[in-house]
Amino acid sequence: MKLMIASDIHGSLPATERLLALFGQSGARWLILLGDLLYHGPRNALPEGYAPAEVAERLNTLADRILCVRGNCDSEVDQMLLQFPITAPWQQILLEKQRLFLTHGHLYHPENLPPLGAGDVFVSGHTHIPVAERRNDIIFFNPGSVSIPKGGFAASYGMLEDDVLSINALDNSAVIAQISINP
C-alpha cells in the first residue's frame, strides 16, 4: 500500500495545489491529512496564499481518497466546507505487521501516547517539525508542515511505500528523513 501523509496546511492554497499535484503523480491510493486544514491559528502568521475556501474546494475534489483527523485549529464550521470527515481525533490503519495510529498531535503526542504495541507507528503533525525515528519499540513519524514549516526545515510531506516512511521536501521532493517500519 502506498500512502501520502501531510499535515498543517493552514489554508495555504499554493501549498495545497503543490501537495495535490504531487499526490496525483505519486501513485498513492490514499492521502492522509493530519489536521489543521483551513485555519492558520492564532499563533501562526498567515501562510502564503491564504485562501481557506479555495483550499476546501481543492481538497473536496479528492474527498473519496482522503483520510483525515482533526487538528487543534479545525472546527465544525470547517467541516461544513469539506466533503470528507475531519472531526475524528484519531484513526488507525492496520497493515500486515503493525498499525499506524494517526492523530494531529495536540491530544496524543510523544509524551502522552495511546496504548501502542511493539512495532506500531505513531503518526502525528502539529509541531510542524519533521520526525522519522524509532524510540524503543515504537516508530514516531511527523511529516512536518506543507505551509508553515518550523525548526529551519523546508515545507514537507510524508510517503509510505514498500515499508519505508519518508519525509520529502514539498518544493523538490528531496528526502529529508526516512525510516523502515520493519526492523
Descriptive account of the structure:
The chain has a single domain, classed as Purple Acid Phosphatase, chain A, domain 2, CATH 3.60.21.10. The radius of gyration is 15 Å and the shape is globular. β10 and β11 form a beta hairpin. By secondary structure, it is of the alpha/beta class. A six-stranded mixed sheet has the order 3-2-1-9-10-11, covered by helices on one side.
Q: If classified by CATH, what would the architecture be?
A: 4-Layer Sandwich
Secondary structural class: alpha/beta
The fold-level CATH name is Purple Acid Phosphatase, chain A, domain 2
Order of strands across the biggest sheet? 3-2-1-9-10-11
Keywords: Metal-binding
EC number: 3.1.4.-
Domain Calcineurin-like phosphoesterase: 1-161
Protein name: Phosphoesterase
Summarize the structure.
With about 180 residues, the chain is α/β, with parallel strands linked by helices.
